[in-house]
Queue: 4 jobs
Job 1
Amino acid sequence: MRALAAAALVPLSALAIAACGDGNGSATAPAPHRQTASGSVAVSVANSRLGRILVGANGRTLYLFTKDSGTKSACSGACAAAWPPLRANGKPAVGSGASAALVGTSGAQVTYNGHPLYFFVKDKKAKDTNGEGLTAFGGTWFAVSAAGNRVSPPASPAPTPTPTPRATPTPTPRATPTPTPRATPTPTPSNPIPQNNGGDGDADNNGGPDDGDGGV
């Protein structure tokens, strides 16, 4: 009975040692997660806000990297942690909308129209395109069209110009003509000397009042 109990403890202790490290106190890091496609659709086409783009078996957006040279990837280390490459065990399967003639591999990484394909860690669900147009690790990342070309991000709509209000012309006031005052005729002073042979009738006043000269 004791022998059986001791035998049962052996594999448990072995697992504990493996989990704790290599005996030098250092923990063994888990193998990095890789996006792979085996026995399932590796590349297909789906509709998104960018139009029809390539997606992986999980429906997540696939990207190309402008720094890559042909089918040779320029993304490794920290870059590959942020942009995991699409890998396939054997010949990649092709789904609806994708062209089998454009699908290939470079090592274990799947390529399309000569571009190595990648996922983006910040795409959390199918058809997210959070990596579109980002510049990182020395190049720019773009979603891939069904024809194998990069998809440009949608252009921002141009702002609607605010119409300039038309200036309302200020009416010019019509000049009110100043009336020309009518000239008041100067009255002719009346002659106090009676006329028409009035007065004493002599020649020196021609009919004026009597000037007291006795008619001379």
Job 2
Amino acid sequence: MTQLEPIKLELDNKSVEAILQAFDKVLLLADQRRGELADANDWQSLAYGLAAFRDFKANLDTLIRAIEDNVAETMPGKKQAVDGLGLLEKRSATSRRWDSEGLLQYMVRDVLDPDRTGEVNYDRMWDLIEALKKALPFTASLGWRVTALKELGMPVDNFCETTYGRQTITIAK
């Protein structure tokens, strides 16, 4: 079985560009070695390389997440244009746990009996259908449409628990 040889790299400077160029060199050398091992049918060495690169990828993902957190913490405002890079935007993932039955009952009552008299106004049935079409989760997420609910005057916070996730950074080039 062929052993993978460690590669020594000398960085002229510590700039991001120099580090990325070093990564590119390592990737090219690793791909060349992969080809040699594949041509030699050395599947065991390829398996060791696969495991090593999966570990490397996990470590790289951890580094990327740390950099993204640093950018999110230090970037002023929600959107920033960066010359040569594009538009950076901070985003926060949210998840909601809904009391869908309670919300549906509230919507039906609010639309069919807006004055809370206890009398159902069946002439407003089409209004109810339209309100439901706007707010029901007819999407893959199965989450109620929060903006539509708010536009309909529904007290969204009374019917869901919101959990905020970590901030992420998108880069639009």
Job 3
Amino acid sequence: MIDSSKRSWSKAGSWKVLGFLVLSSLAYAATGSLKQTSVVAIVYQLVMLALFVIHEKVWNKIQWGKTSGLFIQMTGMSGAGKTTLAKSVGQNLQKQGIKVEVIDGDEYRTNLCQDLGFTRQDREENIRRLSFVGKVLGRNNVVCIMSAINPYNTTRSHIKQASPNSKLVYIKCDLEELKKRDTKGLYERALLPDGDPNKVYNFTGISDPFDVPADPDLIIETDKESLTNSIIKLEKLILKSIGG
């Protein structure tokens, strides 16, 4: 939960009052004079206020330790490992005190995008909605990782133009390896002949196109490297991009 401005001001005010009362009590115990106690307490508060203002101005000019928001748009076929990687990196970054949000394409399909199907137009609209969420979070200093198939170059390019503070990450995996990982048998069903009652239509990479990214900022080949190495590569890109 996030403190409201009223709560923050109340906490700061109560802390100041408590400090003033404690200091006044100590000063009175030492001097036995209400006049001297008042002078000491007031001078102390004014000095601390001046030091605080100077301290904040100095730190505001120091860039070390500052981070900015970032939008990571992943792209990759079903089963490539996008969500697993996004959530693992997100957990690591949160441990470092960085605000992170993972946009899971499957999760958003059942909420924000439940009215959309799997035509090209609907797929593009799905990604546009997810990327808008990511763009808003990114400009509010959140590292947002979009885990979605994101199959078309035109959509990816649009996101790059609309969100300058974004990176394109291609999660690459060989088709044969994807078939092995597919516990639901979706690839097998997508390859069935037309007319078969079990066939899955409009399946990305089989019966619906998947455009190989022309110029991604990072390629992670999950069929050739361990999850640990993949996490390190993505985390390194993010930290470099946000100045962490």
Job 4
Amino acid sequence: MTEKLKNQKDSLARLMATENLTIVHKKIPTAYFDVKNRVLACPTFKDDISPELYDLFMGHEVGHALNTPYEGLHSTLTENRTLKGYLNVVEDVRIEKAIKQKYQGLRTSFFKAYNELMEKNFFGIKGRNLQELALIDKINLITKCGSRVNIKLNDTEQEFLQMAEDCKTWEEVVECANSIYEYSKENEERDEEDEKLSKMQIPESEDGDEEDETE
């Protein structure tokens, strides 16, 4: 993708977010949005990325800019820091549905881009038994990749998936994330490799407040 096209898409992201976001490009595992300092960071890869993948990164993080409340995120994580990975996944479900509804032209870009990410093994699932993943990781993959991943849920897991997909407000996201977190504590074990599937090595924010970033 040319530098000119990249600059045009950066400007489009600011228009979509209806504010003058700071947009940076650097070597990071995945895109993120610093909800406190209003910084949208997009990763640079060794190989050039497609316009569709760039649209996904920008569209997803603009979704956070428009919908994820700083005060709500900050206060929730102050109460329970370990909830962040669960909040990220459930909030991703909500904001992606919202941004695709607001800007419906992004639907095709998102679909093609997630194909590209699967080919790049972006989620690190190549060779893994997806049925053995924790529920939050299953929800993350199903809601982002759809039928590209063959994951079967039991009745209880299906109810949690539906709960995540039904979230309309931040308060509902917090309730859902807490419910999945409590279920996971009682029924599952997650190691560091599992956490990378949804957490993707969150970098520190512009002023060092890691908790103020969403992916």
